[in-house]
Design a protein that fits this description.
The chain has 375 residues and is α/β, with parallel strands linked by helices. Helix content is 40%, strand content 13%. Helix 8 links the parallel strand 9 and strand 10. Helix 4 crosses helix 5, helix 7 crosses helix 8 and helix 11 crosses helix 12. The longest helix has 21 residues. The radius of gyration is 20 Å and the shape is globular.
Amino acid sequence: MDRRDFLKMSSMAVLSAAGAWTGVSKIFAQSDSYRKNELNKTKKQPDNNMEFRNLGNLEVSAIGLGCLPMVGYYGGKYDEKEMIALIRRAYDKGITFFDTAEVYGPYTSETWVGKAVAPFRHQIKIGTKFGFGVEEGQPTALNSRPDHIRRAVEGSLKRLKTDYIDLLYQHRVDPNVPMEEVAGTVKELMQEGKVLHWGLSEASARSIRKAHSVCPLSAVQSEYAIWWREPETKIFPTLEELGIGFVPYCPLGRAFLTGVIDENRIFYQGDRRWNLPQFTPEALKHNMPLVTLIRQWAQRKGMTPAQFALAWILSRKPWIAPIPGTTNPNHLDELIGAGNLRLTSWEVEEFDRDYAQIHLMGHRADPFTESQIDK
């Protein structure tokens, strides 16, 4: 099928979104002065092969590390020393962007990140989040009142062993607190030097505009992957217009897109996937054609399926920096291997034509989680 045929097909719903936001990523070269100034601050320098990208005016490695799985989010219990070693391994191999939150654990993830990055704190960027009632003993309740935000930030600073947070997110939009009030509070924290950049997580275009008008946002975080592309139509136009970066979490579809989960897998309570509609036995079986398609393309490109899933995201826009999570050093190395892998614009279009033929089943979130996502 030639380009003209593809453009005709773009009227289809899935391709209207994909066509609007397809684009090969430009490789941003870091300036020599920046690299010398930053990397010379430490004797142990990270790998230089990783691409760097801008989230607003915040520079981060193209691939970051999500530090939520380390607290057993998908089941299992992990050793603190091993997870600290994993974080340091990520830095040694080029990752400079680490994502955490006070509610992860709660507190455990921030504590481990703080200990892990202490030797090279000024060479990396830490993203953390407020927005749940952790201090009040209500970790599933939304809370973005100004006094709570300040307490949350002070706690995060202490656990992270730092005097500033590179990127502070509102974890979820709180309908009971005006966005202008939240943005004003964070603006004060920035003026005090405790926060350098800020962002929102799972926010609507309306909330993004309100926040940005009071205190410019650097990034918005949301779930985004080959099989969950809602941000393309809901917030991408706003982000591009305002010059805000995008940080996708679960870019590997909670491991489904890597091919390690078969249609017979059963998830139990204690694993986040146990009550997600995408991971019911029926949905797993129904969605397997997507795994097959990714595996075929990965083989064609000389990548693993996980690397292809990341390369696909990185090839959408140059202002996207995904944060896959892992607890396995070998998996970490595999993910980092996608740091300079890209698809051409024509390959993205070709993949999307194949993708459009697949009908996917299952929503990404359970009803309670969905109720806390800003629409």
